[in-house]
Amino acid sequence: MPPVELQTNLSGKIAVISGASKGLGRAMALALSRAGATIALVSRDSEKLGAVKREISESGGKADVFSADVRNEANVLELESLVASRLGKTQILINNAGINIRKNLIDYTLEEWTSVIDTNLTSAFLMCRAFVPHMRGTGYGRILNMSSIMSHVSLPGRGPYSASKAALLGLVRALALELAPDGITVNGISPGPFGTEMNLSIMQNPELNAQFLANLPVGRWGKVEEIGTLATYLCSEHAGFITGTDIVIDGGWLAK
């Protein structure tokens, strides 16, 4: 029997991606666009979003820019209304907005703690609450919450970040059970070390970079395109039996 070619077609689907101005968010936006989805690009940096939109347009895709603070309830409600009026009903939601403040817990201010928790966790709650009604009754929906290997293990100086990402996986499991009868899947993606802006300080220091890669089984940084490929598959019809779980993509970090 000849092999079956796995083709991912997201034509006609509208995907909302937060934190889409750079890094993993940008990579997922480009990947889903190549599969045919129309992308609602969301972040607070409208200038960088515009650059991503141009990339998508130049490759024949469709995207629109939505400047919003996804930590803010009023902003999210306005975002939902704008996306609906300009693009239509959302079928795919990727909660990718995230920050990390690296220092010991006892040195954190309450404001810093709240900033990390609100950006990484509360924003996902607000976005899911706003956009899930778009998916219900259609028989199809995909929600991806971008977590981290720091939800499974941790390091010094990662307390609030690890707490927020572990909680995000709890939200994945509960929401997956709530939405399964509607044909909506909810999953997490836990990236390990990827070559993004967040890791430039290590990557640009030859000594630190060599030490870091020596402890990584595959011996290299992850490529953002690899996250895009995974996200595209999880958003496709092929992944309809995958829900309530977390996909680790970390170059073997957690296997040690």
Could you walk me through the main structural features you see in this protein, from its secondary elements to its overall organization?
By secondary structure, this protein is an alpha/beta fold. The protein has a single domain (14-196, 224-250), classed as Rossmann fold, CATH 3.40.50. 43% of the residues lie in helices and 15% in strands. It has helices spanning 23-34, 46-58, 73-86, 110-135, 159-179, 200-203, 206-214, 224-234; strands at residues 14-18, 38-43, 62-67, 92-95, 141-146, 184-191, 246-249. The chain has a seven-stranded parallel β-sheet with strand order 3-2-1-4-5-6-7, sandwiched between helices. The longest helix is centred in the middle third of the chain and has 26 residues, at 110-135. The radius of gyration is 18 Å and the shape is globular. The N and C termini lie far apart (39 Å).
Name a few traits of the molecule.
single chain; Rossmann fold; 8 helices; 15% strand
Question: Brief description of this entry?
Answer:
With 256 residues, the chain is α/β, with parallel strands linked by helices. It is built from 8 helices and 7 strands; from the N terminus they run βαβαβαβαβαβαααβ.
In the CATH scheme, the class would be Alpha Beta
Largest sheet: 7 strands, parallel
In CATH, the topology is named Rossmann fold
Q: What is the N-to-C order of secondary-structure elements (H for helix, E for strand)? A: EHEHEHEHEHEHHHE
Stretches where pLDDT is under 50 for at least 5 consecutive residues are: 1-5
Straight-line distance between termini? 39 Å
Mean pLDDT: 94
* Total DSSP helices: 8
